[in-house]
Amino acid sequence: MAEEQDRISHLPDDILIRILGLLPTKDVARSSLLSQAWRKLSPFSSLSLLMFQCPDFLESCRKNTDVSSFINAIDSSLRLRPKDVNLARLRLHLDLDDIESESLIDSWIDAALERKVKELDLYLRPRSIAKPYGLPAKIFSTTTITVLSLEQCRLEICGDIDLPALRKLCLRQIRCDEQAIRQLISSCPLIEDLDIASCGGLQKLHVSGLANLHRLEVICCYNLRRIEIDAPSLQHLVYHCGRLPCDMVLTPCEFLRELILHDPHITNDFLQNLDSGFPNLERLEIDSTRLQRIEISHHQLKRLELKLTPLQKEAKLKIDAPNLQSFTYSGYRMPLTSTISSMNTSSLREAEIHFRNYNDYSHFFIPQLKEFFEKSKNCQVINLLIKSKEELIIPRKLRPILSPPVYDIKHLYLRVSYCSRFQYIIDRMLWMCHPQTLSILSGTNVRFLKVLYNKFRNKEENPKCCTSCSIKCWRHYLKDVQIDSDESRLEIDQIIAMPELSQKSTNCKVRFRLKWRSQLL
């Protein structure tokens, strides 16, 4: 038999270079073992993207030989690269314990800057928290960098800053103070995207003078006491507070589209002024542990997410958002009936209710949830995520006065992670609404899905229950059940074969198609 031909060796060099450009850097380093053609090329010198991350190269136990080969790969790829071959991106994610001298990192950065690197991403884990890597001053006087991402470094500004092309700046776990940050930001007038996270030295942050800033994220700067934002073109703002109370001064901005606030010190006055201060706001996410009165009125708002804690069990909510399309509520009790009644849900297309672990499901909870179904009947999708130690049971004395089930809901998604008696959740949900499809999401306890499947499979044609009730349970209305796909059927077969007391969770979504009788014959 003729020896198999090495077809790769006959490909043109420009095609080989394009193939190399699609591979991870570690695979490029190994490419010379594949074919004679790879060895003819200088792979690293032809690549515009160089990404070195310790875990990629040191997959096995960390041995000195592994570390030295990793260091040599970085060194050769930068030092041997012709200076007239520009570099689009360099990523160095390193553990300083693997580097003999920080001057070696300095030389790699110098080599990248000489080759006019456009995107520089440095994550340099220090040997000790007290001694992070000190960034060389050259980084802050480079005319070609458009994206600069720095993590676990020390930022000290010495001299002037000249980054005229910078569009995106990311600072995470940086040792710095507010003066260094302010000087850096003010010297980069074209910044469009600014991300500051876990910078513990910051006590005050002032963001202004950036006419092109579209996106700003300030996350978990634990000692921050005051933040001032004046960005007229801002469209996306995320703020997660630190440990201390922080005053936030946010200048009104007509272009803001998304506002995500995780801050226990938000005031209701701030929320009430959203419509006037941010007239084009479309998405609002609020996570505040102290607000006891939440009033949101906004005519352009399309997506609203509220997260409440056990401390807010009696919080009063009022929502006036006639164009709301998506509503997410996460908390330890259902919003008050007045909240649901006040909501204009004519535009609502998707709703998600996440009941956290809470043991006081009173009788008032039942009508509230039922009313929510009725108000949400225009929704295409409703998600219910239940994590409760209490059984969500419809008390018998409420059954005679309940209104008929809601038929207009098309898709109901359900995830149940904990409950001691799953059958009550099934009976309750299907008593209140009759969806066209019922999807059990991944992460649901397999016992719940097994109980649900057995209920559907063993349903009687003419049930004998509920004879004295004018509104009968779901068994009387359900006409047919079908498993939606082969994937759903395979998941059910696997679950049925599991031990009875298995506490595992489902691996994929299982969907049932349900056909209902609109009324009893």
From TrEMBL:
Transmembrane segments: none annotated. Residues 5-41 form the F-box domain. PANTHER family: F-BOX DOMAIN-CONTAINING PROTEIN, OS02G0105600 PROTEIN. This is F-box domain-containing protein. It comes from Vitis vinifera (Grape).
